[in-house]
Automatic annotation (TrEMBL):
EC number: 2.7.1.60, 3.2.1.183
Protein name per the record: Bifunctional UDP-N-acetylglucosamine 2-epimerase/N-acetylmannosamine kinase
Gene that encodes it: Gne
Organism in which the protein naturally occurs: Orthonyx spaldingii
Assembly and oligomerization: Homodimer. Homotetramer. Homohexamer. The hexameric form exhibits both enzyme activities, whereas the dimeric form only catalyzes the phosphorylation of N-acyl-D-mannosamine.
Predominant localisation class: cytoplasm
Amino acid sequence: EVYFKNLSKQKQKEVMEKNGNNHKLRVCVATCNRADYSKLAPIMFGIKAEPQFFELDVVVLGSHLIDDYGNTYRMIEQDDFDIHTRLHTIVRGEDEAAMVESVGLALVKLPDVLNRLKPDIMIVHGDRFDALALATSAALMNIRILHIEGGEVSGTIDDSIRHAITKLAHYHVCCTRSAEQHLIAMCEDHDRILLAGCPSYDKLLSAKNKDYMSIIRVWLGEDVKTRDYIVALQHPVTTDIKHSIKMFELTLDALISFNKRTLVLFPNVDAGSKEMVRVMRKKGIEHHPNFRAVKHVPFDQFIQLVAHAGCMIGNSSCGVREVGAFGTPVINLGTRQTGRETGENVLHVRDADTQDKILHALQLQFGKQYPCSKIYGDGNAVPRILKFLKSIDLKEPLQKKFCFPPVKDNISQDIDHILETQSALAVDLGGTNLRVAIVSMKGEIVKKYTQLNPKTYEDRLALILKMCIEAASEAVNVNCRILGVGISTGGRVNPREGIVLHSTKLIQEWSSVDLRTPISDALHLPVWVDNDGNCAALAERKFGHGKGIENFVTLITGTGIGGGIVHQHELIHGSSFCAAELGHIVVSLDGPDCLCGSQGCIEAYASGIALQREAKKLHDDDLLLVEGMSMKEEEIVSAAHLIQAAKLGNTKAESILRTAGTALGLGVVNILHTVNPSLVILSGVLANHYVSAVKDVINRQALSSVKTVDVVVSNLADPALLGAASLVLDYTTRRIY
């Protein structure tokens, strides 16, 4: 550890020497309002903590310095930052002309400040009109610009401003994979884009367990309970001010009717905000017993308020970005955030044109708890950004280079130009073993952990959490970014809710089990759950023979018999999540008993358990062992012994395997006549032993129109883990599932 720390210091020293005689990087951070300070503050703290590398200058402008918006510059002082310059740049009027005049006033005042500070780099955040003035001034004065949160998509004029700043900026820190791809599509230099995540998530993901009741009481009253109040934050939409004011009026009417304690924050300084404040006062919100109207809440306290709210409503980016980290329900009104990536906690009311619509949304969302989402960050953004800043070579030419099409492959580079691999945590709950793996986007199993599956629910869930936490920690060391957790388990599963409804007899105490909530809460990651047969089909669709095939069926031949059906590229779950229970297709009315309680199922003939049962019968009658075979006295008879005996010429063992293969083949024929796939994939440890028998039965028994179906053996080494991973990877790469 000491060696690597010294090596890291040596590398940083080399960069500083390259920049000229141990020159410290002089960084100017300019903040315009309470929202951008919440994103910039973690970076500022990080810069301040490393005085050997950086000099920090803080410039405050915009609505920070206006009393009507809370004089929020004070929170910067309370955070013990020295404010180098205060610039009054807001022209009051809160209309379109005032916004333009404010940009012009900032452009007049900023050159003098930048001439005095002479920063090496200016950090600019987001998409506000103040930020456009900052970027324009710095670009024209040949100062390097680092833009935070570029490449994102939303509604209103903010989109245009954000992309304009992108074209002026020299370096880019983005929060999501989609944002990174947008920057690449905008011809920005790949080597100057850092996918770091949102800096505010560094604080968010460690905030929820802190004391919060005192904060709730201060802002909402002594009698308020957690999950029993609403936070409302709505801003004007500058491209449609009249409609946004009307929508705000309807929102307040709906909140009054809903009759829950509500914290209402004043809107930002955009055009239309003055009219929105008039609406609040017209409806008596500031004096209503159910409402608390405030100009500003410190970010640390605001985090606690939204984390424990019953719902957040409005059109603030905070609702679709930061609040997802806590799984708090959000109602996003109108078009201001159109295009933003969101977690499942967000309900969109795009056309919020009636009070009833908004009221109905409140009734649907209030009090729910969703899985925590980490779309916008994993809590490690600031270390990545500081490392990125240290790597900047001031001797490089200042002139930007644009990478016009054709672009490079869609890869993400950190500052060492090493791919930080997007990956999933995959969990496979088998009858014997519990396995957890880190699986990359390409289907590579980077790291795998295996333990015996405990017999009780409590021990099993505790072990899953322990193994997942261990794997998530290890992911950092192997340079993997975990996007979520996918779980493959036996039994009938409701994938929409993440609940195991009924388990197989192989896994005890595993019915009516909510897997999603405890794992998501512990890891702060989205969680998907599905049946192991369905997961095998998903693995084939993403990584195996099923890739690009519209209709196919996967059959797992292992301890039990299972499978999955993909029709028109989509997995079929059925009306009660019981589709593709292929092992329980009945192929004989008087066949052997099955674990499901029926008789003559495929599983009763062809599963590993069925073959083991027949092997034991032969062994008890001294008919199993033939020349070339031996067994230790304490050795347990298994299906493998039956297969070995058949290979060595044991005719009774051969007959049993032939019957098992015929039963499986008849089941496949039934499947062909029912769903007519173009491909059948046999997966599992017994697949190679059955493939010839299945093809023979198809040739003898199937209708001529389906005899041309391809029957292949899976080439995937671990379909259960790969399928669990694909649950995560398909969804997080925006594939509809």
